Amino acid sequence: MPYSAWLRAGRYSALALLVSCGAAANDASLPLRIGPHVFQVEVAATPQQRERGLMGRTQLPADGGMLFVFGQAARHCFWMRNTPLPLSIAFADARGRIVTLADMQPHSDTLHCPDTDARYALEVPQGEFRRRGIAAGAQIDGLPQ
Predict the structure, then answer these.
(1) Is residue 116 part of a domain?
(2) Which of 20, 74, 106, 139 has the least C-beta neighbours within 10 A?
């Protein structure tokens, strides 16, 4: 194959790879809205995904996060073992109403639990809820059932 044809084929292959990776990334993330604010979050719905969470991550965009989805509402508690990022967490009931907010410190074994049963937990960079004026009682829209 001539060099110019090889380059063209390489460009198209790279473009196809980028498009397929982008599609895969979009399939793995979900936009959530809290009032006028949108967070693009990864979803942790299986026990293995929830156990791993954001462990080992060193960066997270200001509008990024992770949504933990549980089969049933309960007092699901979180800690920060092996998680180097400072995070804020919002626990939400089955309707998506935030019931409890907390700030969590990196590498801490301190348990953070909702005040009442929660079906969802949303982790974002620490301070993002406060900075955006998001408080207990706010509604999270776009949650998976």
Answers:
(1) yes
(2) 20
Buried b / exposed e over 49-76, threshold 16 CB at 10 Å, is ebeebbeeeeebeeebbbbbbbeebeeb
Whole-model pTM?
Answer: 0.81
Place of tokens 């080992």: 56
Q: Is the residue at 128 inside a domain? A: yes
Within-domain flag for 68: yes
Q: Is 137 exposed, middle or buried (0-12, 13-18, 19+ CB in 10 A)?
A: exposed
With respect to residue 93, please indicate whether it lies within any of the assigned structural domains.
yes
Q: What is the CATH number of the domain that holds 51?
A: 2.60.120.1140
The pLDDT, as a whole number, for residue 145 is: 86
Q: Domain span at residue 103?
A: 29-141
Residue 40's nearest CA partner among 14, 66, 68 is 66
pLDDT tens for each residue of 44-78: 999 999 999 999 999 999 999 999 999 999 999 99
Give how many domains the chain has, as a whole number. 1
